[in-house]
Amino acid sequence: MSRSSHFTADILTTDSDRSFIRSLNEFMEHEKKCLQCPGEGPDELRYTVHRSVFSKVIGRATAYKRLLLAVKSEYDSTIMELQRREEEARAARLTVAASESRRKSLLTCERQAAHLRERISTHQRETAELQEELEREKTSKEQSSWMPGLTVAESEDPEALDGYLKDMEAQRDALLDRKSHCVPLEVKTKLDAELQAAKRRRDELSAENNLLTVLYKRLRSVWDCLSSWEEEGQPAPLGELVGSTLENIREADGTDEDICSIKQLFEDQEPAGADASELVSDYLDRFLELFELAQYEDAALIAARAPRGVLRNIDTMEMFKGAEVLPGSLSPSFLFFWALLFTAGADGELSAPLSLQGVSCALQSGALQLVSYAVTHKKLTFTEELGDILTEHAQENPGVADLCLTLATIIYEACRLHRKAALSMCRRGLIHSAAEFLKHCEDLTAEDSMWVLCRSPSLSLLQLLTEPLQDSAAILSVGGACAALLADPQQRPVALQLLDSFVSRGRGALEEVIVGDVGSSVDVWTHVVSLCSELERDDLSRAILSVLLSQSGTRIVTPDPEGARLMEHVYL
Question: Where are the coiled-coil regions (predicted)?
């Protein structure tokens, strides 16, 4: 730390610069100590700390910001390349191991094949011997002919032999005539090769023609859209028009299996190597130029479409958040979030930090429909924090609460946060759906159901959760739920309403509930009696106590002195 301070002493001109460098050094030392970075050698945690510090330096820099951004981009690219090479080396080692296993299997198969070939040779030799024996038996028979197609008697008849000779001569002439129309085998082989080459060329030209046809259709669509935009007097921004046009083309291509995606067509023509570095540098220069000119919409589109996604990160979002909002215009961070969504591929998802920041900016700008599009089309990384942001926005804005809670439910279910999903259903008024969800979700416990009930108290929900299931007990026991709710001043009315509903139906209904409540002991119901007495609901406490005393073998231990004397009198 002292050496770095000595190194920067000559270039630091103000006390604020020295204080800034000193805070950065303290920050790095503190983070390395907290993260337990090793003293020497490459380490991912040290790279993360240095990257964060470098981002702070870029944020403070003015004259060299463009250069520092380019250095940071190249540094990140180098780190990603090293990680990619490490993954490739690991994959190569696994491939070598798999190749060795396949080689052993191949040797085993070759040995088995050699054994089978020997057996086949033996069978073929035996078959040949049998065939020779059959031929010898045929030649020994008297009915055998001397010539093919002639019997022994015909072979001795000169007229028959003359006729046979004429037939053979006719067959010979036919074969010679046919031979004159044939070509050598080498010529046929050459013609077959030329035919295959012509077919391959035909297939290549057909594929190229299809590709050019697709490109023509897309360029024609863009041309028609731009012509219409110019004729109508430029009613909408050009960037928004082009983005919507490309999105329409992308959706149309998704329904045609014979047309490849537009993104893949253009990515195949992207430069690589030195050309790619120049392209990234040009994008960075153009982005910074537009950003400094406060042309935030165009700068957001440039950042979203930057090669390799070098500007599709949280650092760029922080730059837009720090920019000044022009009067009568949308916030720069919202424009960047919009550009990220509509330039993402079909399977592209924003990172979790970008998703959180983008949704917050969209909600502040009142663009709830954009958030709905991003959630339903899976353009975001779903996290618990993202669902909490939508839930909080629903509580602060009742007019859009239903849509926000619906989106939050989708996110919670995707993250397997089932109790929060059930709570969102309750807040939307879907009490029965929430109860069914709690009953049939295997990951939820009685504590989770109580958690939902305490945060969304409802008599209907309490009745549904305490109803016995067809083949098992209820999710919540009546006594346990009432005892927990009566102990909380904010939840007492729901428990009292439930007990009043039992008492209003008569002593038999209350007795049936208490006797059938297998999840609560007598001590739990005694505690309920005590809580009702403290709340000056003597009618409820007497009704419950009467049912408990009517059960044979029941022993009640009450903390109330008067209740204790009453029990002593009853048992005496």
Answer: 72-140, 188-215
- Contact in structure between 300 and 339 (CB atoms under 8 Å): yes
Tens-place pLDDT, residues 121-139: 999 999 999 998 888 777 7
Give the contacts of 549 (CB within 8 A, at least 6 positions apart). 556, 570
pLDDT the model gives residue 562: 46
Separation between Cα atoms, residue 458 and residue 463, nearest integer Å: 9
Query: Judging by beta carbons within 10 Å of its beta carbon (0-12, 13-18, 19+), is residue 365 exposed, middle or buried?
Result: middle
Which residues lie closer than 8 Å to 415 by C-beta, 6 or more apart? 382, 383, 384, 387
Distance of CA 265 to the CA centre of its chain: 24
Q: Quickly tell me which residue has 């220069």 as its tokens.
A: 285
* % of the chain exceeding 70 in pLDDT: 82
Report the alpha-carbon distance of residue 426 to residue 434 in Å, rounded. Answer: 6
Rounded to 5°, angle at Cα 215 from 214 and 218? 90
List, for residues 502-545, the tens digit of each pLDDT value: 888 877 888 888 887 777 788 888 888 888 888 888 888 888 88
Structural tokens at position 41:
């050698």
Q: Centre a 10 Å sphere on the Cβ of residue 290 and count the other Cβ atoms it contains.
A: 18
DSSP annotation of 345: -
Amino acid, single-letter form, for residue 412: Y
Total residue length of the chain:
572
Q: What's the predicted TM-score (pTM) here?
A: 0.50
Residue 476 tokens, joined = 């919540």
Contact between 393 and 400 under an 8 Å Cβ cutoff? The reply is: yes
DSSP string, 82-103: HHHHHHHHHHHHHHHHHHHHHH
Give the Cα separation of 103 and 222 in Å (integer). Answer: 55
- Token look-up 């120049």 returns 278
Quick check: helix, strand or coil at residue 157? coil
Q: Residue 372: CB partners within 8 Å, gap ≥ 6?
A: 403, 407
Q: Which helix (H) or strand (E) holds 153?
A: helix 152-155
Report d(CA 559, CA 433) in Å as an integer. Answer: 40
pLDDT 10s digits, 179-219: 777 777 788 788 888 888 888 888 888 888 888 888 888 78
Q: How many helices (H) and strands (E) does the chain have?
A: 27, 0
Name the one residue in this structure whose structure tokens are 């820099």: 61
Outline where DSSP puts E strands in 119-169.
none
